[in-house]
From TrEMBL:
SMART domains: PHD. It comes from Rhamnusium bicolor. InterPro entries: Zinc_finger_PHD-type_CS, Znf_FYVE_PHD, Znf_PHD, Znf_PHD-finger, Znf_RING/FYVE/PHD. Pfam families: PHD (PF00628). Residues 1-23 are annotated as: Disordered. This is PHD-type domain-containing protein.
Length: 104
């Protein structure tokens, strides 16, 4: 239904009834909210999935900021999640900030 409404809108046709139009707008709004609420890897920007079996796709959060990363996007690539889950991790952005403050 959403795809049909999008095609009609692209063609510029005006024969969408009010209820379909309202549903279309509501669906677009809900889709945008869902996309915003998904947590994304701060490096590759792909969605983080917490229940994956693939170790490289598991997540680790920076100890200094609120950023989260796939293991594959960090120096932990190729390691078992169980080996790194309780390791200290500071992301590259925080390391750069610390380095700049130290230099200044």
């Amino acid at each position: 239904m959403l795809q049909q409404l999008q095609e009609i809108k692209k063609r510029g046709e005006n024969h969408i009834n009010t209820q379909d139009s309202n549903n279309y707008e509501n669906n677009i709004h809900k889709t945008e909210e869902i996309q915003k609420s998904r947590i994304r890897c701060s490096r590759c920007e792909d969605e983080l999935i917490s229940d994956t079996e693939d170790n490289d796709l598991k997540n680790i959060g920076c100890d200094k900021c609120t950023n989260w990363y796939h293991l594959k996007c960090t120096g932990f690539k190729g390691k078992l999640y169980e080996e790194v889950a309780f390791s200290d991790f500071i992301c590259g952005l925080c390391i750069k900030k610390t380095t700049l403050v130290t230099i200044l």
